[in-house]
Structure formats: structure tokens, C-alpha cells
Design a protein that fits this description.
The complex is a heterodimer of chains A (185) and B (255). Chain A has a three-stranded antiparallel β-sheet with strand order 2-1-3, with helices on one face. The termini of chain A are far apart. In chain A, 54% of the residues lie in helices and 8% in strands. By secondary structure, chain A is mainly alpha-helical. Chain B has one domain: Methane Monooxygenase Hydroxylase, Chain G, domain 1. Helix content of chain B is 44%, strand content 7%. The chains are: A mainly alpha (185), B mainly alpha (255).
Chain lengths: 185, 255
């Protein structure tokens, strides 16, 4: 499990997933969860709840005659079939940031809950292909400064990929700086 | 508090550590042996060559009290030979080999497995003897080849016969090896490994952040698959021992 204080884990868990309530929760009608709309929450209302809340509701089983969980959790649209097909077709052209800012974190959490082998394989493949692209781009910003199409790929990276890019770029950059520093002294 | 530094050595740290390597120095002035923390240095009596740590050698060179002899692998011939090895298409997967390691200095409790002995001592750079002295191996690049090469070219240019050629060869070597490393990225996998025998310290430092990040990301994505696979394996193992059909097969084999 991710650490309690880790900002990455907090932000990842704050991403939303569609949850269908299986009982009425009138007291929450005016809460921000319901967009403060005031429409009553009846069984079969679907709301986008943050992952940490949705997971607890979906996993908990209240003791009592009806021991079904309080809500059912669906796959968020960021990991839906349309995105999966797009990723299988061409992993590097999908704008992951549009889907979810912490895309791979979201995928990891859903894989914990759902055990979808195919989705796991697609995500792994996507990660590898995009990592290769990132390595290329990190190395080439020195020479080809900002092409128009490279801007699209870079803006479509989710947070983990951005950190990867920064790590790759920093490595080359630090080595260059060391060479320059020792040349002077 | 969270430490913002990345795990592992940064390139500047690797560059600093390389200065512990010994190089052969030809003194121009006498100097008594120094009692350094790492051990005593030999006395300097010109014109006898003496091994000294690189940082001390560079200092003396700057003060014009000594000349540094480039190690055998830092010559035009040696570097050209190594570069030919690297660019040969048959060795596209490999790096040029590192110098031969000394045998482990221990009596091992198990044959050929020195790591378990209490008194075993596995030396690694920068403590390997003669990595950059005049007695170094001429056809292998030691661990700190890039850093030592660069420092010697910058601070002791007059000690080289053909400085420009050496500089160009070093640059070419660095590019060839980095491109080989980058090709190795393609086989990164959650549980996989890349064969990197012979890679130098600075080269690793450059890619450490990226490769570490990729493998970590893959590990996280693979975690649920890994866990379900482990559960399945433990179940199969238990069922295998308990099921009777296993035993029946064995009896039939005996007949």
C-alpha cells in the first residue's frame, strides 16, 4: 500500500470513479459529492466518487440481513474499453493526461480491485512503449529544440511519465555540468 | 523529512569518488611520503614513477611539481582497439570487458562461493589495484574510465602524445556505449535484467534515475498480477502434495 503521507498516493486516490449506490443516502444530497445539487441519492444513483471513498463503500459489508456492499464500483472511463483499444493500437499517441492526471496510479488501484489480466497487460505494454519515447525526447531536446508535434506528446504525459522525463533529462544534464565544472577547475 | 536527493550516486558524486583511484606520477621535486587517511603514500624521488591518488596527483600537477603518466588504456592505440571492439556489429549486445578482477582473497567455506566467508574481501573500484596506473590492463576500460580520462585530458594535456586524438576517441567511445545502453531500455521489464558487464560508473549514473523509475513503474503495474500468480503457485503446490492422482501415476510407473 502507498504510504499515508505520500502526496502521489493522496492525489492518485483523489481521482474519481463511478459508483452506484445500492441504498438511499438522503443525508448526503447536499454534499459536494453530489455536486451540491440536492437531488436525493436513491439506489441506482451513480456518482463520481474519489477512489478512497468509493473503495471503502464497495468493499465494506454491513452486518445485517442484507449483507450486500453499500455501493458497486465501476471502471472509470479513463480505463474504459475505448481508451484500452486506443492504447493497444498506438500507445504513444494517446493523451494520458486528458484521461487522468495520475493514469498509471489509477490503473494500479483498479487492478488491485478488479484483477483484469488484459487491462494489466495493456497498461504494461503502454508504459514500456511510452517510456522509450520519453527516453528519446529527453535526449534530443538538446538538438531539436521544440518541434510542434513533440509538444503534443509531452503535454499528454501523466505525472509519473513527467517525473521519468525529468529523471532522464537530469541525468544527462548533470553529467554535462560535471564535465564543464571539472574543465574549469 | 523527505529527502529530495535521488537514491544512489549522482554523477557529481561518481566524479568525486573517481579521484580516489591511483595514477602513476613522475615527480619533479622530492617530497616525503605522506600519511594519508587511506594509507601512506610512497616518498617522491625524481625521476622514479610513484603511484599516488588522483586528487593528489592533480594537485601536484597544478603546482608543477609532477607529471602524470597516462595509463596504458588511455592511449590512441588502446582506445582505437577498444572502439573497434565496441562498434563491431558482432558485439552489438555487449560492452567492452572490464579489467580482470583479482581472485577473492579468502578461504571460502563453500567451493567457489566467497561471499559467505566472514573474512572474504571483494574489492571493487576505486580500490582495485592498478586500474589507472602504468601497470593497468591496456585492453580494458576500468570502472571510472570516463571520469579519469576527462580529468587527465583537462588538467595534464602536456603529458599526452596526441591529445586531440585521445579526446576524440573518448567522445566516440562514450557515444557508442551510451547508445548501446539506450538500446537496452527496450528490454526493461518488471522482473527482467539487462546485461551490463563492463559499463562504467558515470554511464550508470547518467541512466540510473530513468531506469530506476521505469522498473519501479513496471513493478507497480505488475503487482496485482504478481500477487495472483504467487497465490496460484502456492495453491498448486499444496494441491499437488495432497491429491491422490499424483501417487497413482507413480505406482503405475513402477510396473
Amino acid at each position: 500500500m502507498a504510504s499515508y503521507y505520500c502526496p502521489t498516493a493522496i492525489l492518485t486516490d483523489a481521482q474519481k470513479a463511478p459508483t452506484t449506490f445500492s441504498l438511499a443516502v438522503p443525508a448526503l444530497s447536499h454534499s459536494p459529492l453530489n455536486n451540491n445539487s440536492g437531488t436525493p441519492i436513491t439506489p441506482a444513483t451513480t456518482l463520481d466518487l474519489p477512489l478512497w471513498l468509493a473503495e471503502m463503500l464497495a468493499v465494506s459489508r454491513p452486518s445485517g440481513p442484507a449483507s450486500a456492499p453499500l455501493a458497486t464500483l465501476d471502471m472509470p472511463s479513463a480505463l474504459g474499453p475505448k481508451v484500452m483499444n486506443a492504447l493497444t493500437a498506438d500507445a504513444t499517441s494517446v493523451e494520458l493526461r486528458q484521461q487522468a492526471q495520475w493514469f498509471y496510479g489509477l490503473g494500479e488501484r483498479m487492478l488491485e480491485l478488479f484483477e483484469d489480466e488484459e487491462m494489466g497487460a495493456v497498461l504494461l505494454n503502454t508504459f514500456k512503449k511510452r517510456a522509450l519515447e520519453i527516453a528519446d525526447k529527453a535526449q534530443n531536446t538538446r538538438t531539436a529544440q521544440q518541434g510542434g508535434d513533440s509538444g503534443d506528446f509531452m503535454s499528454g504525459l501523466d505525472e509519473t511519465e513527467r517525473q521519468l522525463f525529468r529523471a532522464a533529462h537530469d541525468g544527462t544534464h548533470t553529467v554535462k555540468r560535471w564535465f564543464e565544472a571539472t574543465s574549469r577547475g | 523529512m523527505a529527502l529530495p536527493l535521488p537514491p544512489g550516486l549522482t554523477p557529481s558524486e561518481v566524479g568525486f569518488l573517481c579521484e580516489m583511484e591511483h595514477v602513476t606520477v613522475i615527480p619533479r621535486q622530492t617530497l616525503d611520503g605522506l600519511e594519508l587517511l587511506g594509507g601512506p603514500t610512497g616518498a617522491l624521488k625524481p625521476p622514479f614513477p610513484t603511484p599516488l591518488p588522483l586528487w593528489l596527483a592533480l594537485l601536484l600537477k597544478k603546482q608543477r611539481r609532477a607529471n602524470i603518466t597516462p595509463p596504458p588504456w588511455l592511449s590512441v592505440d588502446a582506445l582505437t582497439q577498444i572502439l573497434d571492439f565496441e562498434t563491431d556489429e558482432r558485439t552489438a549486445e555487449l560492452f567492452s570487458p572490464s579489467p580482470n578482477l583479482p581472485p577473492a582473497t579468502t578461504t571460502a567455506p563453500l567451493e567457489g562461493d566467497p561471499y559467505l566467508a566472514h573474512d572474504s574481501l571483494e574489492l571493487s573500484a576505486p580500490f582495485l589495484k592498478d586500474a589507472a596506473t602504468a601497470r593497468a590492463q591496456a585492453d580494458a576500460l576500468p570502472y571510472h574510465w570516463l571520469e579519469i580520462g576527462h580529468l587527465l585530458i583537462t588538467h595534464a594535456p602536456d603529458d599526452f602524445e596526441d591529445l586531440d586524438a585521445v579526446r576524440k576517441l573518448l567522445r566516440d567511445l562514450r557515444e557508442v556505449r551510451m547508445s548501446k545502453l539506450r538500446k537496452g531500455f527496450e528490454v526493461l521489464d518488471a522482473g527482467g535484467g539487462v546485461k551490463m558487464n563492463g559499463v562504467g560508473g558515470m554511464e550508470i549514473a547518467e541512466v540510473r534515475g530513468f531506469v530506476g523509475g521505469v522498473v519501479d513503474g513496471l513493478r507497480k503495474l505488475n503487482r496485482s498480477r504478481e500477487e495472483s500468480r504467487k497465490e496460484r503457485e502456492t495453491e498448486e503446490r499444496e494441491n499437488g502434495f495432497g491429491s491422490s492422482s499424483y501417487r497413482d501415476d507413480e505406482d503405475e510407473d513402477m510396473l
